[in-house]
């Protein structure tokens, strides 16, 4: 299937831009998937790099972008918060919405809170891959080495206190999901996120779906689990299309 890859720069304000990659079918497509990464990840993580190609091969344009980056005018991980990330995503959606009849948001890990906090007006469907603990819960057991918080992600990551404590500003999950009236699918990894995913599902409104991928860990690195994740996501999106 023929496609075009385009590096996209979207102005967020007079000093800040978002950087991403659009995979665009040469034959017009009216459906766009925006892929939102999680904590300390980026658009080149295998989930997003591979998902972008998987879904364009099945008729969707895809856009993956960095929440923060090395460019001088990009957001910086240590100087922003979830409200800012959500506001940025709303502006990205507004940039694309005139071109697409359907915009789908897909997130991984803490990216779930970003897509849930963004403006929902132009969104047709949400997919949460392995949503994480609420940020407040993540902060309860972190080590502190002033002025840093140390997160254990299988390896240690030091985040400046101001950026870490911005997680405390995220509303409680029940208050967030109470305001969401879009179709939502939650796909969790058996090894790490089944209980958390079920909690998201319990609080979400219909139409909704909850799936667990057997043998999968948080990043779906195990053989075959990434492909299963993509297939479940595609089925949800195609089922939603048929029900419209």
UniProtKB/TrEMBL annotation:
InterPro entries, A to Z: AB_hydrolase_fold (IPR029058), Hydrolase_4 (IPR022742)
Signal peptide span: none
Serine aminopeptidase S33 domain boundaries: 29-143
SUPFAM superfamilies, per the entry: alpha/beta-Hydrolases
Protein's name according to its UniProt entry: Serine aminopeptidase S33 domain-containing protein
Natural source organism: Candidatus Amesbacteria bacterium GW2011_GWC2_45_19
Lineage: Bacteria, Candidatus Amesiibacteriota
